[in-house]
Amino acid sequence: MDSPSQPPSSAFVALAGGGYRATGLTRGPWHPEHQHAGPPIALVAGAIERVAAAMELTHIARLTANLLRPIPIAELRVAVETDYAGRNAAHFSARLHSGGKEVARFTALAQRESPVEIPADLAGHPLPSAPSTVEDSAPARFPFNQRITGYQDLIDSRLAHGSFFRGPSAVWFRLRYPLVGGEIPTAIQRVAVAADSGNGISAVLDFNRYVFVNSDLTINLLRPARGEWVCIDARTLVGSSGGGLAEARIFDAEGQIGRSTQSLSVRARE
Questions:
Q1: pLDDT surpassing 90 at residue 137
Q2: pTM for the full predicted model
Q3: What is the Cα–Cα distance from 197 to 37, expressed in whole angstroms?
Q4: What is the mean pLDDT of residues 122-137?
Q5: What is the pLDDT of residues 190-228, one digit of tens each?
């Protein structure tokens, strides 16, 4: 098992034949053999993005991940299909498999980028900025298990507002290692790695007493993220029937670029 002092050099290693091997940098907080969902969602986002780019559709406007079962730290395979392709937009679906089982299913909308002049008096504009800049946000390490390598080692994080796991908070994220060895992470991949942490950073329930795992993630973007830092400004709402919702505003250094939502399954730990 990886140690924090000698972590792997990337979250995934590309394999001959098109598969990927996950490393300890993908490890999440819920189980030592399961991935944090952010890295594999980002991996699939990149595969969808490549298919869309071949059609000159370079903006991933929406990405939805349906998490069917825990994603193991193991070999993965991604399959992407084009459901419909028009001149200015296309719909895609994708499946993620590991060990002969489908572990996640995805849909996405890609659009053609076209510069548009925005009227100066447009309602709701200019778009808001993150609660605090990267430079004014304090470095803070995710309080996961520090004895083994995991997601907390994959990313740099800075608190822009609030505190980890104590209600609404905003956190800047940056990848410290490549998502896939030998590749530069793309804009949608940087967003996906961060966005799946919304329910964690804004948790309102005691991690030691409750489980509040997200079964999906939807990201809607106004435009591609610019720069290496992405801010997730999240809050969690909990219902009385075992359900919850984590919702977040997404920012880069220039301002708001979108939103994300996660459906939560809430239960007391046994």
A1: yes
A2: 0.94
A3: 9
A4: 94
A5: 999 999 999 999 999 888 888 888 999 999 999 999 999
CA distances from 48 to 10, 30, 141, 208 (A): 20, 27, 31, 36
Contact 26, 57 (CB under 8 A): no
Quote the CA–CA distance of 37 and 30 in Å, as a whole number.
11
Residue 73 tokens read as 């730290």
Report the candidate in 234, 235, 244 with the shortest Cα–Cα distance to residue 210.
Answer: 244
DSSP assignment string, 179-216: SBTT----HHHHHHHHHTTHHHHT--S-TTTEEEEESE
Residue 125 to residue 133: CA distance in whole angstroms: 19
- Can you list the domains of the chain with their CATH numbers? 12-113+133-268 (2.40.160.210)
3-class secondary-structure state, position 148: coil
Query: CA-CA distance, 130 to 145, in Å (whole number)?
Result: 29
DSSP string computed for 156-173: EEEEEES-TTSSSEEEEE
210 burial (CB, 10 Å; 0-12 / 13-18 / 19+) is middle
Taking only the tens place, the pLDDT of each residue in 53-85 is 999 999 999 999 999 999 999 999 999 999 999
